[in-house]
Amino acid sequence: MKRIQLSLLALLATLAATAQLPHPDSIRIDPRLLDMVVITATRTPKLIMDVPVVTRVITEHDIQAADATTVQDLLQAELPGIEFTYSMNQQVSLNMQGFGGNSVLFLVDGERLAGETLDNIDYSRLGLDGVGRVEIVKGAASSLYGSNAVGGVVNLISRQSTEPWTLNLGGRTSSLDEGRYCGALGFHRGRWNSLSNLQYTHASPVHLSDSGDMRTIYGNRTFNAKERLIYKASDRLTLTGRAGYFFRERDKSAEAHDRYRDFASGLKADYTFSDRSDLMVSYAFDQYDKSDYTLESRLDVRNYSNVQHTLRSLNNLSFPETGTLTVGGDLMRDYLMSYQFTDGGNHMQYTADAFAQWDWQPWERLNVVAALRYDYYSEASASHLSPKLNLMYKLPQVSLRAGYANGFRTPTLKEMYMNFDMANIFMIYGNPNLKPEVSDNLNLSAEWAKGCYNVTAMVFYNHVRNRITTLWNQELGGMLYANMAPVSITGFDLGTSMRWDNGLGLRLSYIYTHESLDEAGMRSSSTRPHTATLRLDYARDWRWGRSTLALNGRLLSSVTCDEYSSLSDLSQVEERTYPGYTLWRLTLGHRFARGINLTATVDNLFDYRPDYYYSNSPATVGRTYAVGLMLDIEQWFKHKDK
Amino acid sequence: MKALSLTALLGLAVLTASCDGLFGGLYDEPAAGAAYGFIQTDPDGLGGTLRIDATSYTRWNYIDLLHQRIDTASITLGQDAPPEWDFALHRYDVKTHGGAAAETPFDQVGVASALEGLHFVSDADSQVVIDMSTMMEGYLGYASSEVNPVLSTWLHVDQSTMPPIYTLSNKVYLLRMADGSLAALQFTGYMDDAMRKGIVTLRYRLISNL
């Protein structure tokens, strides 16, 4: 197997080496990145080359090349240091460079998401249809986004219709009996711009093994519908309305299914006072429910509901030759009803915040961004100040960045008030006296870009205090939410990408992460120290269309950690090593004339199967195949017009 | 049309201002409040459906099919069983009153119609869990008891994963009581609609002649 992998890598390396390299004068930066405007790092639109915080962008082209159905597939294919695994009860759990799902803030068009399970949002809500790009900012960002932005921010940004009308219909099926079917209708005419998306997915149960921590992956179905309508009322005023519905059903057992629903909607008004001043005000609603559906009685009983209402304002003021001041604030009502509260009860809290950011360019080469945010949480009676300072110094072809940012995560209603009988085995108790998690993040980076080549290196250091976890409490005879000893997470991040005019592109990324407790204790972290991703792609135009070939690889090292062998005697610890692995995906696509797109994918190309399925093993049964078809219907009519 | 669309979206957003959320009418109320005991009886009075609250680890639930009675007795308090009962349930453990049980190939209690080839097994000495609170300390509290090894296979609980995986056998069992009379039993559920484990539902049918 290794020989095959090496042969393929050698072949790819030869391809890259023998590719017809363009003359230096003709090489150029990938145009997809040259004019890329990003928004997540500063909450104001800036060219990616001018942002003082390293921002990784996954473009619509990348999403198509990765042939990803879920945001998990996409992030894992594109970024090292990210691992989605199954935790208890087959719930998806994220580890992003030592930070769990509750320390990485996921946003959709800047809006946070309601609901969580085992400290992770429902990632299957994040369908990739209609997504124009994904922006990832690593490190703390609470000075702009508040709680949960401890380890990073992932922002999915919807695309806007640019054509008079578009209609895309697609389907994908795999040898694992998984299916994805989607449709998108968009129009852009006059003052109106609309994009409607429908997506249905299904997956049959997958039997992994007869032993192991994971045995059978439950089958499931999802349905996702969303609409966004933009009305440009005048040259100064733009109104945006959106609504979305999500449904997921998981075949947990022969008697009962788990159901998950979400309804999200929002209104936003953008007003431009002048070319130096604009104002955005918005209202967002998000409700995430969980229910148990009993097949025999056909009763669908809700046992969890998280409802969030958010009011927001954001104002940008530009001062000529000085900088830009951004000020804003949010007011949120957070309601949670849960089966994990006493008698299935509910709790509610208000959060309020105000923030200001100064984006200053004292010299042509130097950019300074400083921000400060104050957050208040009513139920926790907690408040927090989150500062940040970012510097960028530009040299010819080199950008140097340095930053300090503070992050925090306030205790959730669940962590404060849980009173839950865990399968008649033990109780889990909330703790209203929890302190917020706080992190200090330092990073230094250098980016070199010339022509079609780009190299980025970054070192980072995070010091996390009061991380919230559950610990066994002898007095209560159960698990109790508590703050733990400080943790340090350090490492470095190397990345390079290149794209030649002959259609060949290569991107390599590697991250080293080291997580340690400040105090002597067990090595509880299962963060893999070495992770890398590779993508090699090639595109060629023919008379009969455009062909693309993409190879995506994920390489993850083994990790050794300590685990309790007895929860009542914390001195009893055993060492466990989780094996490393690599997974490769080969995608061949062809775009015929008249908007017919065919895709064929070989997943797990080298047929990797874990010897034992740990909870953090990839849930793969070996090599699988998938085919997809996407029709851009509007292209048919364009053809006729000609 | 476009204005209508925007108005609809605006209206939708305003409607969503319900503070504690939407969908109230979409869901069902759990039937957990329904009565326990003999919740349904066949017209001839010889069969029906039972729902038993077996959530307690410290209690046996004694079922008298003929008189349609359920009595309970605490294990930890040393309470005695009632004078008349046919079988008893403790969580998912089942014992008989001096009888025996056999698994049949049938899938409905009404068609349990022949004894040929059935292997009846009597109760055997065993232990039942009466205290789960010490599980995290590495041990459980047990009490000695007789258990019927055939009837107790109605539910397989795989505890190698968390939470455990529950699998119903869906088999029809024949219970031969001490006086030789027979009853067909089929366990159909181990939880209520609120997913509370230990709420056991079963179909039964007294069999007068086979």
What is the topological layout?
The complex is a heterodimer of chains A (642) and B (210).
Chain A: H1 2-18, H2 31-34, E1 37-38, E2 46-47, E3 55-59, H3 60-66, H4 71-78, E4 82-87, E5 91-96, E6 99-100, E7 104-108, E8 111-112, E9 131-138, H5 142-145, E10 152-158, E11 165-174, E12 178-189, E13 192-203, E14 206-207, E15 216-217, E16 220-232, E17 237-250, E18 256-274, E19 277-294, E20 299-319, E21 323-338, E22 346-360, E23 366-377, E24 382-395, E25 398-409, H6 413-417, E26 419-422, E27 426-429, E28 437-450, E29 453-465, E30 468-473, E31 478-483, E32 487-499, E33 504-517, E34 530-542, E35 545-556, E36 559-564, E37 573-578, E38 581-592, E39 596-603, E40 624-632, H7 633-641
Parallel strand pairs in A: 7-10, 27-31
Antiparallel strand pairs in A: 1-2, 3-9, 4-5, 5-6, 7-8, 9-10, 11-12, 11-40, 12-13, 13-16, 14-15, 16-17, 17-18, 18-19, 19-20, 20-21, 21-22, 22-23, 23-24, 24-25, 25-28, 26-27, 28-29, 29-32, 30-31, 32-33, 33-34, 34-35, 35-38, 36-37, 38-39, 39-40
Chain B: H1 2-15, E1 37-41, E2 47-53, E3 59-64, E4 69-74, E5 87-90, E6 93-96, E7 100-103, E8 121-122, E9 124-131, E10 141-147, E11 155-158, E12 165-168, E13 173-176, E14 182-191, E15 197-207
Antiparallel strand pairs in B: 1-2, 2-15, 3-4, 3-5, 5-6, 7-8, 7-13, 9-10, 11-12, 13-14, 14-15
Q: Quick one: CATH class of chain A?
A: Mainly Beta
CATH-defined fold name of chain A: Maltoporin, Chain A
Radius of gyration of chain B: 23 Å
For the sheet with most strands of chain A, the description reads: 22 strands, antiparallel, barrel
Instruction: Work out the count of structural domains of chain B.
Output: 1
What would you say the CATH architecture of chain A is? Answer: Beta Barrel
Rg of chain A from C-alpha positions?
Answer: 25 Å
- Given as residue ranges, the uncertain stretches of chain A (5+ residues, pLDDT < 50) are 11-29
Question: Which sequence of SSEs, written as H and E, runs from N to C of chain B?
Answer: HEEEEEEEEEEEEEEE
CATH superfamily of chain A: TonB-dependent receptor, beta-barrel domain
Overall average residue pLDDT of chain B: 84
- How far the N terminus sits from the C terminus of chain B, by CA atoms, comes to 73 Å
- So what's the oligomer here? heterodimer
Proportion of residues in extended strands of chain B: 35-45%
- Uncertain segments of chain B are none
